[in-house]
Amino acid sequence: MKKAIQLLIAVIAFNALFLSTGCKKDKKNAPNNPKGTYSFSNSEYTGIARVGNHYYPRPLSLRFGAKDSVIAWSHLTLTKWRRGDVPGKITKVEEDAQGQTQVTVLFDLPGDEQFNSPQVYTISADKSKITGGSSPIIAMVDMKLFPKDAPSIVGNWGQPDHPEWFPDVNSTTFYTQGLTSYFSGGDPLYSVHDDGVIFKLNYKQDGSRILFSGANPIDPEIYVIPYYGVLSADGNTLYVDPYEFTAARITTSLSTFEWYGPKGVTPWLLRK
Fold first, then answer.
1. Are 162 and 126 in a shared domain?
2. Signal peptide location in the record (predicted)?
3. Which of 21, 31, 166, 262 has a Cα-to-Cα distance from 67 of 20 to 30 A?
4. Residue 164 lies in a domain
């Protein structure tokens, strides 16, 4: 009888150990993030992802709230265009044996319910990156943890080795006053209405998220094209995408020649 009891205790202990090494709920109120529901609460991941029906990965900022809210910021095109915030809700969180966190998110896509399957993302054990998801909603390509103290966009940005790429935005300067100026063919772009006055447009920065414009000087006017961008985690790369495709000078899936940059690649600018 004594041996039987000892054997039963051993079996129970083994089962408990086995279950503890499988999936379990994410630790709430984790020491590194005490104000949030989950260990990844109040965090942000930035980079590029397959967002909607598009011909290259788009810039994406994914922000987790304090509880179950999620906001994906990009340009999601299915049967409708969604510029900016795409709200979602966490429906399930589990941690695996390797310390990775599986997060299931259901995005709110009214009118596109036929596409709206739950997205399962994996946050690495050290919380440095997020992967997963499925097309055509949001499938991660290269997404990393963005710092709490967001780097400023202020400075000069471009493609120094490829001045012919992405000419709407290549060689753009962001100023502290919320204004941008542009270079075209190596020269500053001047206003067509005021001689000697540098042409400037407004921009807005919200952490990693940048709303700005591209400029296309076609005599006698300068055409303004709405763009958005997302800063990389290290703050040295700005992934960009136009909101207006018919006017933007980028290479598309229908381009015969790569006049404005490589096909299938997200346009990007480097901090100079």
1. no
2. 1-18
3. 21
4. yes
